[in-house]
Amino acid sequence: MSEFQIPERHARLLAYAQSLTPPAGWKIEISGDEIIMMAGPSVIHQRNLLLIREQFDARRPSDLMPSENTDLASPNVGKLRNPDLTYIPISVVELGGNEVPAEEAAIAVEIVSPSNPENDLVGKVRDYPQMRIPLYLLIDPREGDITLYSEPSDGAYRQRWTGSFGDRVPIPAPFGFELATDGLIRYPA
Question: To 5 degrees, how large is the angle CA 24–CA 117–CA 25?
Answer without folding.
Answer: 5
